[in-house]
Each structure stands twice: as structure tokens, then as C-alpha cells.
User: Fold these one by one.
Assistant:
Number 1:
Amino acid sequence: MRKALSAGLLLALPLFASPNEELMKKGYEVFKKSCSACHVEYMSHDEIREIRRRVLKGETPPIKAPPMNEVALRVKHFYPEEEDFIEFVKDYITEPMREKGVCMPMAFKLFGVMPPIGKGLTEEEKEAVAYWMYHRYEGSWEEMIKKFHGHGKGKGKGKGRMMREEED
Ligand code: HEC
């Protein structure tokens, strides 16, 4: 098992600069089938900020999980290497646990821990969706935070308060 997996990763390596199209396609299919019911594929900074604002006011969030772009950049912040990222995602979706999770505390508070969706997927499907997550999104968590802080009136003072408080 372990051996087959590393062979899979090695095959993808020569194409590192431009992601393997077939894996990307496969990963996206898995996403649509098994993840998109809860994770939207992409949500803009403005939309995410608006939801946070409403949630702070006590409203129920209109989504069931953090958007995938946010999740992917957050996980990449903790697991920057492709191989570690893929390992983490595969493991997490199969056996999610608060202690393992790197999502912000607010995500767990709002949505609870993710169900073990990966248990219903094959190794290949998990590998593909994790690969897709790694390559689908540009930018970094740091850039995303900066955009939150630097946005809007008041020169960012007090903006992103929620994000900062949660970073511990
Ligand atoms: C039933 C809803 C649901 C589905 C379906 C779902 N997720 Fe999630 N996911 C969540 C929630 C809620 C969180 C935030 C709490 C957490 O991290 O456990 C989350 C968080 C995550 C995280 C971040 C984990 C962390 O905290 O570090 C990853 C990675 C992830 N999901 C991947 C996936 C992938 C890949 C799929 C599809 C194969 C998927 N999810 C399907 C609800 C879902």
C-alpha cells in the first residue's frame, strides 16, 4: 500500500511545475461528488468577511463548512510540502479529530468536526482530491490574512479582529 502510494507521488513529480491534468480532473470530480455538499469551491474575501460579520452578530452561517479555498490555504500554511499536505488531508478526511485539525477554532465552534467522509472513498480518490486541493488554489494564508486586515474603511484598524484573536 505504502509503496504503491509513493510510486503514485513520484509519477506526479516530473510534472510538479504544472499540475498533472488527469489527477486534477479526477480530484475535482471527487470534490464535486463528496465534498461540495459542505465546502463551496471558492468564496471571495468579501463574501467570507460578510459571513464572519453576520456570525459575530449571532446569525447562523449560510454554509456548512469553511470554503475550500480557505481550508486549502490554511492547511498549506501548516503543511507546505505537497507530500505532507496530501498525507494530512487523506488522513484527516478519514479520521477527523479536533486535536489534529488546523482549521481556526471558530470553524470548529461554528460547524463542528467534519464527519469521516474519506471512509467512503478509495485511496485513489483521496489522493486525487488532496492533490487537487493542493494545486487548485493560488496564494498563501499570510496573503489572505493581510487582505482581511488591510480592507475597508478605517485603514484596517480593528479589521480582522476575529482572525487575530483566533491565531494563537
Ligand atoms: C458533511 C460536511 C462535510 C463534507 C461532505 C466534507 N467536509 Fe471537510 N470539513 C467540514 C467541516 C465542518 C470542517 C471544519 C471542521 C474541521 O476541520 O473538522 C471541515 C474541514 C476540512 C478540512 C480541514 C481540517 C482541519 O481542521 O485541519 C479539510 C482538509 C477538509 N475538510 C477536506 C474535505 C474533503 C477533501 C472533503 C471531500 C472528500 C470534505 N472535506 C467533505 C465538513 C465537511
Note: Residues 21-35 form the longest helix (15 residues).
Number 2:
Amino acid sequence: MPNRQERVRIAPAKGRLAVLTPGLGAVATTFMAGVELARQKIAKPFGSLSQMGRIRLGKRTDKKNPLIRQFVPLARLEDLRFGAWDPYHDDAYLAARKAEVLSRDHIDAIKPFLKKIKPMSAVFDGRYIKNLKGDISNVKLQKSLMAKAEALMRDIEGFMKREKCDRAVVVWCASTEKYIQAKPVHRSLAAFEKGLRNNDPDIAPSMVYAYAALRLGVPFNNGAPGLTVDIPAMWELADKTGAPISGKDFKTGQTLMKTILAPGMKARLLGLAGWFSTNILGNRDGEVLDNPDSFKTKEVSKLGSLEYILQPEAYPELYGNFYHKVRINYYPPRGDAKEAWDNIDIFGWLGYPMQIKVNFLCRDSILAAPVVLDLAIFSDLAQRAGLKGIQEWLSFFYKSPMTAPGLYPEHDLFIQLMKFKNTLRYLKGESLITHLGNEYYNF
Ligand SMILES: NC(=O)c1ccc[n+]([C@@H]2O[C@H](COP(=O)([O-])OP(=O)(O)OC[C@H]3O[C@@H](n4cnc5c(N)ncnc54)[C@H](O)[C@@H]3O)[C@@H](O)[C@H]2O)c1
């Protein structure tokens, strides 16, 4: 392996990057406001790998541990420009006020910036998202889904022109759509395009956004658990236009905790009898998830992690028979300040039972915002490095990571972080770090 030499040619991060989000709700506004507050040095972007993360290079004795953003060429916060689509007409200021995540002081400190972000009209279908109340008339009225996709492409191009952007990325920050499984219309690009022309009811709005972005070669990252870019038609399109895709479902809150705790239990060969997880949350996301069809999409995404981390087939006595339950309860008084409880029944030496209780009082959008920023920035890096299709190295950011067909997803947060950093080292021609010392191997 070449050393200290770019292994892959990475185009420079010159000019402005458009960051476009379907959805201008709690997560999107907390993300955009946070970037502006960080740019104005009012607050710090804690939780963001692209802003604060470091990467070790070479041997431990080399003592080289630069910031990731100094090691690989990333878009700078100053160069980001924000746009969004939403069926509500509220600009980012009003949406942030209604979301009640950030303090009035923080929101008002950047009022002119937020006021300027006005949502473009959405591709919306009430059959896919229920429980949204009030005036949701900011929607595209073209007759066919293909015409709507073309309108989205014009939105992206128009935004880039207006804001003088050189590149763009899309991060889905809109509500969770109802649960669907892959159908024939999703199996090839030709079938999908025919479906767009014929308004096939199995095409979700999120897929129309993804199609529009990928047609333009723009990376698409899916922050919700829906199928969206996880279908053969999108893989084919991403391959054709050279666009990176990633998903699904931002890893925050309870699932983040699960993927921190479960690898530790497995490392110490502690058995698991059951894991019961419940949540109360009162934001709009919670209200949408109160609908059984949307909850099903979320439940599938949340349930997968333990099974993959614990590998019941390899450790049947420890993990062959555990009971796993996830509940989400909509409870308006809490707003975005979610509370999550986990009861974990484990067993150790000779089968003696023990319990772990976790009570996480988190803020959903505060955990999600840095993930949106990192996905925007690293999917842009992927694009400039010529990485197309599914970006498994971005699994670190997701609850339900997308993988190449036939591979199982990696859920363990620590393996995901190693894969993420080793990918960056690989891109730059640095030695991969395996944590084996020099005394054994001559790296
Ligand atoms: N906050 C977290 O920790 C977290 C973690 C993982 C995933 N997510 C997902 O992120 C998404 C956003 O969460 P949120 O808390 O901001 O929700 P939110 O309800 O505050 O915002 C979602 C916005 O999407 C809009 N929307 C719905 N359908 C749309 C469409 N077709 N096109 C454009 N906009 C549309 C809604 O009008 C709403 O304004 C949800 O899918 C949620 O499940 C959030």
C-alpha cells in the first residue's frame, strides 16, 4: 500500500456546497441553525466528526492525530448553503420556533438567516404520511410522478444557480413514510421510470426525491427508515450517474445506546434473556409515528441492530433466545425532549441473572443534527473521491445501515467507526490501523 500519498484522486472541495433537505422540521432546522450558530461562533458543533473528530495516523509512537477536516479535503461550514422542501409553508425561523428544540435566544440570534430559508413545494402523498395536521398545501401539482421528479431537478438546479453552488447533496429529513416492501416496480430502473410515468402507487414520495437527486448525480442520504434508496432501481441509477447513496435512519437516542452497550456485552460473553425498550416523545415525528403504518417502518429499523451485533447463530447459548421489544409512545407534553427506558435482562457465569436499567433523557434533534451535517459533508467527499453507489463506510451514522446486496449490515458502533476511519486512511494512502503493534508485524 502506498504511504502518505493520495491513493484515490479526490477533487478539491472548491466553491459552495448546496445542502438540500426534503423536510424542514425539527431535525432540519436544528441542523441548519446549528451550523449558522457555529459559523457565528455563538455555539460549538459538538457531536460532529467532520468538525471535531480526529484520526490517528501511523504508529502510536508517531504521535500524529490530526483533525479529520485537516486530513481530508472537506467542504467548510462557511461554504454550505441550505435549501429545503416541505408541504408546510413555514420558513426555517417559524419551523424552528414550532419545533421548540432550540432556545428562543439561539433562534432569534440568527433570525435573518433562518427567515431566508423558505421551503420549496414538496412532492407529497397523504397515503404515505398520515397524522400531519394544518395547512399542508405547499405541494407540487404536476400530474405524473415523472413530471414531479423533473420539477425537483429544476428546483435543485435553480437553487444551485441562485446560491452560486458548485456541488449539492440531499439529506432526507422528512417524516417517516408508511412501511412498504420492495415490489416489481422497484426492481429495475426501467420498471421504476415506467412507474413514475404511470403514477404507480408503490412509488413513495421519498423515492421521487431520490430519483431526482441521483439523475443529477447528486448524493442522496436517507435519514428515515423507509426503503427510498434501498431498492435495485436506485442502485442502478446511482451506478449510472456516479452518485453516492447512504441510509437508513439516523442513529440517535435509544438505538445509539444499544449499539454502544450490546458490543460490550458480547465482548464479555454475557448472555441476553431480554431487552425491553420504550420511549415517550411529543414532537411531530412522534405524532407521525403514532400512526401504525409509519411506526412499523421505524420498528423494523430499530429491531435489526441487536440481532446483527449479537450473532445468535454463532452464540446460540448466549443469544439464541432473547426477547426484544421496542415501543414508541406519543406523549405531547415532552416535545422533542424524549425519555427512553431500557430494561436489559442479562446472565453471566453459571447462568446467574442480572439486570441493567438505562434511562436516557435525550434530545432527539440535538443528537440528529450533527449526523445530518456529517452525512452532508462526507457524502460530498465520497462524490469528489469517485465513490458511487452504497456507502457502507457511512454505516456509523445509521440505525439500519444499507449494504451491498448479499452482505449483512454492520451495526457495532466501534467496528463502524474503525471502518469509517480506515476508509479515510485508504483514500489518502495511509496505512490502515489494525491495533497490532510493531513488535509483531512490520507495518
Ligand atoms: N430526531 C431524531 O433523533 C431522528 C432519528 C432518526 C431518524 N429521524 C427521522 O428524521 C425525520 C425528521 O424528524 P423530525 O423530528 O425533524 O420530524 P418533523 O416532523 O419535525 O419534520 C419532518 C418534516 O417533514 C415534512 N414532510 C413530510 N413529508 C414530506 C415530503 N414528502 N416532502 C417534504 N417534506 C415532507 C413534514 O411536513 C415536517 O415538517 C423523521 O423521519 C424521523 O423519523 C429522526
Note: The chain has two domains: 16-250+366-427, 253-361.
